[in-house]
Amino acid sequence: MSLRLKLSAVTAVICLVTAVAITAGRTTMRMRDLEADLTHKAGVYAALLGKQLEPAVAYDDQLTAREVLESAGSDPDVSQVALYGDDGRLVVGSVTPPLPWAVAPVDVTTRVTRDAVVAAVRVVPKEGPHAVLYVELGTERVHQHVNHVVVITSAVSFSLALVAAYVAWLVIGIVVRRLERIALMADRIASGELNLPELEVGSPDEVGRLAAAFNVMLERIRTEQVRLAQLVEARTAELSSSREQYRQIAETTRAIPFEYDLAARRFTYVGPQCSALTGHGVGTWQEPGFLASVMEPAEHAAMFADLSAQLQKAPQYDHELRVRAADGRWVHLRSSANASGGIARGLALDVTERKALEQELQQAHRLESVGRLAAGVAHEINTPVQYSNDSVTFVRDAWVDLMSLLDEYRKVGPVLEAREQAIDLEYLRENVPKSADRAVEGLTRIADIVRSMRVFSQPEQIEATACDVREGLGATLTIAHNAYKSVADVKTMFDEVPMVQACPGDLNQVWLSLVTNAALAIGDKGDARGTITVRAEAEPDRVVVSVADTGCGIPAAVQPHIFEQFFTTRPVGKGAGQSLSAARAVVRRLGGEIWFESRQGEGTTFFVALPADGAPAIRLVA
How distant, in Å, are the alpha carbons of 90, 375, 568, 569 from that of 573? Predict the structure, then answer.
């Protein structure tokens, strides 16, 4: 429905309601006036007739009374007339006279009913009986007159309402047409069309003022559009410049910017640095499964397991990985990214040189450990060498004496007994074999130490091989004997365990760090000789090695930092904070995990879990 029709309809309804209200009000007023006139007329008739009937009532002249009443009944407004005596008996009346009232009025009294007006008056002659006169005037003529007035008034009112509605239709049409032009222009502006002619203001009324304001608004919109276009152009140029600057910075650093789809496991964007760094082109990097093709399977699985664990805590993650370059060398990368909507965006920094320095640092630490053990090993070897030397010297001297004795046997028979007593032949017979046994034992001990040294300090290996953790643990306990022999007893419990894929030299360094730290913890406690318990157990798809001590334990405040590089609780010169950090790096590189349980004053147990040969990488503790 259009605005014009709506406003015209509202105007017509208002005019109609107004006409009805006027008609109802005029009808009510006219009805009241007519009823008032009729009531006055009934009172006058009752008073006049009462005076005329006084002689008839005084002499009980019903004939005269009837004549008086019939003359009054000739008036068309008079519908009923009746004369009642004091006893309530009808003296003279019409066919259906008005009923007498319960209390006869003293003066002229009127009563208005729905269809009539009744006036009553007491007729009191000077002599004789009294009576009561009732005059009833009908309201039919009043109603007819009122209906006539209603019809005329309604016709006039409705005519005026129609005229007013038509005039409103014309006037509203003029206003609405002007508003429609404004609305049409607003629609065109909303659709983006601003090159429009201005609206005609016309008369200076509210619609004219609206049109003028609309023209001003249109001009301001045009000005603002130009300003915004210039601003967008400037911001776009700045953004393009910033993007180009960022691209130049990002693509000229050694770090590789990347965008990685975690679900599809493929790079959707990678910087051109990847080609110079690895020899693999950008297109090769963006192929599905690229990382799996250039990483060791165990390291690839461990990387995604670690990545999933980090992303469950926060959208940021850091991870180190190594990929094989096109020329066969290993390139170490440190990836830092932020994941959002299944896409990880970040930088991969080349840390190959840093890893090489760390390898050298670990090797230096390892050599330092071996050097520290050298004195102990020398002491361990010196003792069996000493008693072996003494025993061999004794055997040598005894052997000379025996040879001399045999020579004497050949020359002088009678002096043999005296010579045997001189050299104590029975003593020699008993102790020479014992000395030889001690010499063999000492030499065997030396061989064990040398063999353990060879097992422990075997050359650095890059490729992992299948190895038995029990062999490395045994060699480590032999080498570290001097470190713990004065403070602790060692218990070993080795189950049958599967082989693990590892570099034996790196793994032996882990065992040495755990055993020497256990011996130091017991030494720091210092109250009594302690115990170091070394276990090797087989669990589903993994081998778990534990080294437990009865030392002083690790304070709760420093436990979160125990694996941090260069962190140590020992005085300067007695600890470098490298052993546990290097141990965790080795274990994680093998796809395993290291953790500990400690109670201050009671001891600490370190656990190392390694995947069994052929089993997937594991992650036990973040």
Answer: 147, 18, 11, 11
